[in-house]
Specification:
CATH topology of the largest domain: FAD/NAD(P)-binding domain
Strand order of the largest sheet: 1-7-6-5
Strand content: 15-25%
Number of strands: 8
Helix content: 40-55%
Distance between the termini: 74 Å
Largest sheet: 4 strands, mixed
CATH superfamily of the largest domain: FAD/NAD(P)-binding domain
CATH class of the largest domain: Alpha Beta
Oligomer: single chain
Radius of gyration: 24 Å
CATH architecture of the largest domain: 3-Layer(bba) Sandwich
Shape: elongated
Length: about 200
């Protein structure tokens, strides 16, 4: 059985956690697991490919609108095959760079395989059992928080699950992610109390 300081499932937004933890502890051992191409859904088949495909369509619309400005233009041909090939080339350049970074890092064991839990804090991947006290599930799920159902007590409990030398690193990431949620749901942070409104001076 292999033991790691951290196991991360997912290779997209999870890298926002992995990179600062490696910087804080150059000797940390991390397992990164992703059965799909590295980079996460946003890069491989989500918003980035979509925006690359939308850009040529925006250019076509701009060319059509140019006639309203007295510019006579004509689109002779649109090659959808070229548009698709350009998109794939761009995203796979990034995918290959991320894969190279994961496989060449001395801190990371990269598993391009499905994984399963077989016991608390224990997983099986590629026929190997791996274990860690910290396992992050960064697999593209969406958190749903009911109105007025979030509290600082719950956040503090979550913060207590990360201890030791990585605690300050987790807090830095945690606060950056959680504070916008707090503001959205009308909950004030202990360190960011709402200031009293400033009354406008001058005539009423």
């Amino acid at each position: 059985m292999k033991e790691y300081d951290l196991i991360v499932i997912g290779s997209g937004s999870a890298m926002n956690i992995v990179e600062p933890m490696i910087q804080d502890n150059p000797d940390i051992r991390i397992a990164v697991i992703d059965k799909d191409e590295p980079g996460g859904i946003c890069l491989t088949r989500g918003c980035i490919p979509s925006k690359i495909l939308l850009y040529p369509a925006e250019l076509v619309r701009k060319i059509e609108e140019a006639r309203e400005l007295g510019i006579d233009t004509q689109i002779k041909k649109i090659s959808f095959e070229f548009v698709m090939e350009r998109m794939r080339k761009l995203i796979y350049t990034d995918i290959d760079q991320i894969r190279e970074g994961l496989t060449s890092s001395k801190n990371i064991d990269y598993y391009h395989e499905p994984a399963e839990f077989i016991a608390p804090y224990t997983m099986r991947v590629r026929g190997t059992e791996i274990k860690s006290k910290m396992i992050f599930l960064c697999i593209g799920s969406k958190t749903i928080i009911r109105q007025n159902q979030i509290s600082h007590e719950r956040l503090r409990v979550q913060d207590e699950t990360v201890t030791g030398e990585h605690r300050h690193c987790w807090r830095r990431i945690h606060c950056r992610r959680v504070r916008p949620l707090l503001r959205m749901h009308g909950v004030q942070s202990h360190n960011h109390r709402k200031k009293p409104p400033v009354r406008a001076r001058g005539r009423a």
